[in-house]
Description:
Strand content: 25-35%
Strand order of the largest sheet: 3-2-1-4-5-10-9
Oligomer: single chain
Number of helices: 6
Order of helices and strands: HHEHEHEEHEEEEHEE
Amino acid sequence: MTEFWETSFIEKQTMWGFEPTDSAIMTKDFFLEKNVKDILIPGIGYGRNAKVFMDNGIHVTGIEISKTAIDLARENGLDIDIFHGSVNDMPFDQKRYDGIFSHALLHLLNQQEREKFIQDCYNQLKPNGYMIFTTVSKDAPMFGQGKQLDQDYFEIMAGVKMYFYDADSVKQDFEKYGLVEVSQMDEPNKNMKNKPPINFVIVTCKKEL
């Protein structure tokens, strides 16, 4: 996964544009409502989803595997702490955060990596903190494409493996981590108008006292 995303990012640069995703905007509103002030964004990329939080007074720390992405974030004025490394190596600090937002990352991990990632995120939440994951659903247009590797897990193209969630698999993976809400939304490709929207599952968890 590391090699694919580093190469892909170098080739495509800022292919997703600089507008935040609709799910990031929705999460920002939720975090403001819940008085979340300090968040971690694993897989922050070049920061397109970070600024919407920062512009609303939320402190952001990132994790990113691609040095190229981090350099682009810096070039575009993202002056925040970003740990250079894989989410598989979390935690990078011993800090506890009010909130965690992870967009379009979870489904790129295999089962063992997903389990560790969810656990690591939960461990870095403060009591009463929230973590929100957006992950591709079985209603996405690419579900079932390519080579099937396991149940709901496909190599949709060379080097790109995706796990597709539904309500049952969300419950299975998140029930013991304070699952409070599951919803779905179609995310438009804002920088690629000719591409169809992708259906995402949005998972919200709360770390109880």
